[in-house]
Specification:
Layout lengths: L1 H9 L1 H17 L5 H6 L5 H11 L5 H13 L13 H36 L4 H15 L2 H15 L22 H7 L3 H38 L2 H8 L4 H31 L1 H6 L5 H10 L3 H29 L2 H4 L1
Length: 334
């Protein structure tokens, strides 16, 4: 098992190298001059040339990539063009908000997705089964930004149950310790802030959880149906065990192996795919930051944000593979 973990962990390096090459090449062929964006349209020819020399833009492409890679190894992602702050500093400020939102969405997706999948499989071809599968199909097909706007329209503007946007109310005081607002509210026992943060978190989390919830529900149902047809399940039923015990004790554990893989993939996708949700709800996370970077053509933000999302995605998938092998040791042997 240790050998498998080491081998699987080492694959992170070439994967991230490949990602860095793709990110660098895509940005290098994107229209626009970073030096002109940094200095503005009124910059002189001499100052533009000096800035290009400073940024290494006059070097051949492979030398530029070498400089880019060198900075990456030192965790130096450069400075943003618009705020002139270190990219790594801005990521540190915003990443907790994205993780908090993604974890909340993943919690909802797992809770309702797995439950729907189990009940649908144990009641195959029932009305509940048909309704849940139709609902999951709608969930997969529904655009996140449209759902976010609809949730905002109904529950914020018409009913007034939830705040329209943001992460916490302007009149709510919270001592920030970890930058995870839910955790900070619990640590400081500020229950007013805790409730306010949960209210702000609710609608973005629901919007973001819809697609992974539908995927997890369909995968759980499919996996459960396959396991429920196995001989040992028939034996358990023949022994007179209740259907609840057969499903939850004997079938659920074996059917969760592919579901865990899907959950891991969805978490990586949530971290990278929260861009539209964060933009709709003005959630101050990395997704909204990357969106603004694209609009303003801030190359450093796009570069840093893309590398961050790719790194998290690769690391999460590696952890899922290791967890997969822990649950099913035959994987590590293969």
């Amino acid at each position: 098992m240790l050998g498998f973990i080491i081998r699987r962990s080492l694959t992170i390096i070439p994967t991230l190298l490949g990602v860095s090459i793709v990110v660098f090449l895509l940005l290098s062929i994107t229209p626009g001059d970073p030096a002109e964006l940094l200095l503005g349209e009124r910059a002189t020819v001499e100052s533009l040339e000096a800035m290009r020399e400073y940024l290494g833009l006059n070097e051949p492409l492979h030398v530029q990539y070498g400089l880019f890679l060198k900075r990456l190894i030192k965790f130096d992602l450069g400075e943003t063009i618009w705020t002139r702050q270190k990219v790594i500093v801005e990521i540190k400020e915003r990443f907790p908000a994205t993780i908090e939102l993604s974890l909340a969405a993943l919690f909802l997706a797992c809770l309702f997705g797995v439950t729907l999948g189990i009940v649908s499989a144990s009641r195959q071809y029932s009305i509940f089964d048909y309704l849940s599968m139709v609902g999951s199909l709608i969930g997969v097909s529904m655009p996140v930004f449209w759902l976010g706007l609809m949730l905002m329209l109904v529950f914020s503007l018409h009913l007034g149950w939830f705040p329209v946007s943001g992460r916490i109310g302007v009149n709510t005081e919270l001592e920030v310790i970890t930058n995870f607002y839910v955790l900070d509210a619990i640590i400081t026992r500020n229950w007013k802030a805790f409730w306010d943060v949960l209210q702000h978190l609710a609608l973005p989390a629901v919007a973001l959880s819809t697609i992974p919830m539908a995927i997890i529900a369909r995968m759980t149902r499919s996996s459960m149906l396959e396991v429920l047809r196995q001989d040992y399940i028939k034996t358990a039923r023949a022994k007179g065990l209740s259907e609840t015990k057969v499903v939850l004790k004997h079938a659920l554990r074996n059917s969760l192996i592919p579901v865990i893989t899907v959950i891991g993939l969805q978490f990586g996708i949530l971290l990278g795919g929260a861009i539209l949700t964060e933009h709709v709800f003005s959630w101050p996370g990395v997704g909204k930051w990357i969106y603004e970077g694209v609009v303003k053509r801030d190359y450093m933000v796009i570069q840093g944000g893309t590398m961050l999302v790719a790194t998290v995605f690769v690391v999460v998938n590696t952890l899922v593979d290791i967890l997969y092998a822990v649950i099913n040791p035959r994987i590590s042997v293969k």
